[in-house]
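Quick start: read one record
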Amino acid sequence: MMRPCFLLIRNHLFELRTAVRHLHEQPKLKVGVIALFSLSWLAGLSWLFYAGFDFLYRLGGAAFFLVPRLFTLFFMGLGFMLMLSGAVTGYATLFQTPEVRRLLTWPVPMRDLFYYSLVKSTLMSSWAFFFIIIPFIGAFGVYREWRLLMLVWAFLISVPFVMLCSGLGVLLMLVIVRWIPRGRTLALLGVLALVFAGYSAAEYMRELKANQTEDVMVLVNFVPGLQLASYPLMPNGWMANGILAFSNEDWGTGLFYLGLLGSSVGVLFLFMARMGSWIYPETMQRQQVGSNVWAKQASFPSRFLQAGFPGKGALRAYGIKDSLIFLRDPSQWTQFLIFFGLLGLYFLNLGSLGYSELDPVWSNLIAFLNMFSLSAVMSSLSARFVFPQMSLESRTLWMVGLAPTSLGKLMLIKFSLAGVTLAIVGVTLSSLSNRMLDVSPLSLFLSRLLMPSVAFSLAGMSTGLGSMFMELGPQTPAQILSGYGGTLNLILTLLTVILVVLIPGVVSHLLISGNFVGHQMNSIPIFTSLYILSVSGLAGGIPLWLGYRTVTRRDY
């Protein structure tokens, strides 16, 4: 007799196979855009990695010293991101999906239910990272002229590495949800943890500088985490050493590291299966009770928003409601925090990397590339959070009809909240980047104009198109985004970012490089500013107006 967990996994595989078979029923625009972006991503990242390896190996003998250490650093960063992804996805899969709550009422042993949810969350949180690992390994293999068999073995060693890091993230999340205290005790422990982390980081940096050897002195100055990444008991070191062993046709060492990663995954999953059957029921009950208490009592965020949220009337009421929904769903605010938190950490380290000492031409170029990456993240998050807002409100349209407001006003309120939030985040992070890079006054002026304009265009486009393609009935955000409107919104927001950010960046680069002379030096910044305001105004204003006209004329 087959165990229930294997039956659940097999049923999920049947669902995936059915979805693949019905792929031809999906909108051709959606399938084409996803295929185009996937191929473009793989090709572009492969070319970037190939160019990086070409640069390193042109350094001569230094490459044999640099490449192994940079490999370990690359996989350490990838491993930490996998752990974060596993923790966020695992929380949503183990505690928040309707499927798990439904299976709790079925005659399924708790151990099998937990194991099924663990495997599902691990796969969901890790599959996208292969779009980074495959180009990396492929570019290295092509540059080193590997045989096909070596590429296959190098890819196989990445599977247990990805599963191990994702599983560790799920385990960390489970421990935190089960044993972390709440209320004032949690706040006190959080402050103490931040103080301890800051003190530990400072001590680690002092010890690192004191103990660095001559051969790693330059690299340590530029990459402070290099010594940690080279620690022999870290999984990223096993992954890097295994790939390098396969590249040197050292099959024994490569298979050893493959077996080490695979056995670690087996031990971890067996431990988590036993641990889950023990603490998962109590953790689920604690989570549900905590959610009910949060919903019924006036928590600190609720009291804070009630006291300090600006505005009055419908703006204030809807603003508080949307803010609390966002804060009460960890799967939403953790994504927001991870994306912008990683960018913030990167911007903070620009000064320690010595980029502020670069020529103004290069610091200006890096500043605009940072603003482009920040705008790209803002576009993806606006597509994820802002576009579905009006469709999610369709469940309670009868309440809007009874309230002293209108659907058009509701749409404008959601646009205002999204625009202000994106503008605050964009201006804060871009200002941090510019300060670390010590950019020229022209770049500083354009960035202060650029980020609010990007925020207006993205919020207006996502809100307007979300109103035009409003889905009625019970829908999840994933179902809303998978439709024609979600695909169109993703395409247009990315195109807007390219037009609003990249073109002024190219003009600014040419201006600082000295390609314009005479009266052009004064007129180019003025025309660039008008271009930014015009394109962002049209990109955000036209969809917003069309969406407003749709919701005011449509009979719901």
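The CA atoms of residues 76 and 234 lie 8 Å apart.
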